[in-house]
Amino acid sequence: MRRARPKPEKLRASPALRDLVNNKLKEHWSPQQITRHLARHNPGQPDMHACPETIYRALYNGLLDKRTARLRTRRTRRKKQRRGIPTKNAIPNMRPVHTRPREAEDRGRAGHWEGDLIVGKGQRSAIGTLVDRATRYTRLIHLPAGWKAPQVRDALVAQTAGWPVSLRRTLTWNQGRELYHHEEIEELTGFRIYFCDPHSPWQRGTNENTNGLTRRTPPSRPRRPDTGRGHETLVKRAGLPLIRDDQWKPRRLPGRLHRLHQREDPRGPRGPGRQQAGIHGLGGYGRGAP
Fold first, then answer.
1. Whether residue 207 is found in the same domain as residue 117
2. What is the reported pLDDT for 86?
């Protein structure tokens, strides 16, 4: 028999804290962002602090506004973790992410990228995303001919051909079969491609976070969803930070918390990594993160 809980849930007992969390969730903040915001703006007030797990439990138990307070993933219950034996992937000669060079891990130099695909509703269109690990500069790869392995290969080669060689160092991808021809991509672009472990999206977390922000900026009515042209509206809005709301949102980066705002200088600070790599020479849509 389970013992009765000795005290009520924190968000149930504190209307002020519950209202604040509700408001931030309506603005599409994540529980982690809300936790850091509470700690920073309410020092010395533990009653106004809440850890991410407290917020998740309140959401899943119905303590918050069910109509407007929701996660960005719109999930209303915990996702069950399926622990099974991964199926064998047929991609040949994959280079594991654990062998990636140290300078890619340190994020001190531009040219080390993380990539993935975003597939649209009904799988009628898709777009590729490339995010630089050091600057958070984002490029969206158009896939008008489809997103099978040959089409992804051709699009990556064609749309990165004009980049400086110094910006084509490494590319980290998941084990999706769209990169079956990774050896040809390496030969034609100069990238060294590394693959994450199965079911390990945190190994390319910068790209995962950017994809989540990108998904929140879809075109309202794509003109030709079967060709991917509808993503042009998305691209023009995109960049880093990928924020549609008027107010700033915090974005957690290694060792620091950035305050990103749409009205800040879109070029961001002129750090040594940018000057050395010439990140603005890429052209096209998107911009580096402050």
1. yes
2. 54
- Summarize pLDDT for 243-272 with one digit per residue, the tens: 344 434 566 665 544 433 333 333 444 443
38 within 8 A of 50, measured Cβ to Cβ: yes
Long-range pairs for 200-203 at CB < 8 Å and ≥24 separation? Answer: 201/174, 203/97, 203/172
| Distant-in-sequence contacts of 218-222, Cβ < 8 A, 24+ apart | 218/120, 222/120, 222/125
The pTM for the full model equals 0.57
Q: Are 7 and 13 in contact (CB under 8 A)?
A: yes
Question: Which structural domain range is residue 157 located in?
Answer: 97-282
Task: Pick the closest to residue 177 from 151, 158, 155 (CA basis).
Answer: 151
Same domain, yes or no, for 158 and 25?
no
Measure the CA–CA gap between 95 and 196, rounded to whole angstroms.
Answer: 9
CATH number at residue 266: 3.30.420.10
With beta carbons less than 8 A apart as the criterion, state whether 230 and 237 touch. no
Give 161-212 pLDDT, tens digit per residue.
989 999 999 999 999 999 999 999 999 999 999 999 988 999 999 999 888 8
Asked whether residue 90 is assigned to any structural domain, the reply reads no
Amino acid at 290: P
Angle between helices 182-189 and 149-159 (to 10 degrees): 10
Are residue 131 and residue 252 in the same domain, yes or no?
A: yes
DSSP conformation letters of 58-106: HHHTT-S-TTT---TT---SPPP----PPPPP--TTPPBGGGS-HHHHH
Q: Pairing mode, if any, of strands 138-142 and 126-132?
A: antiparallel
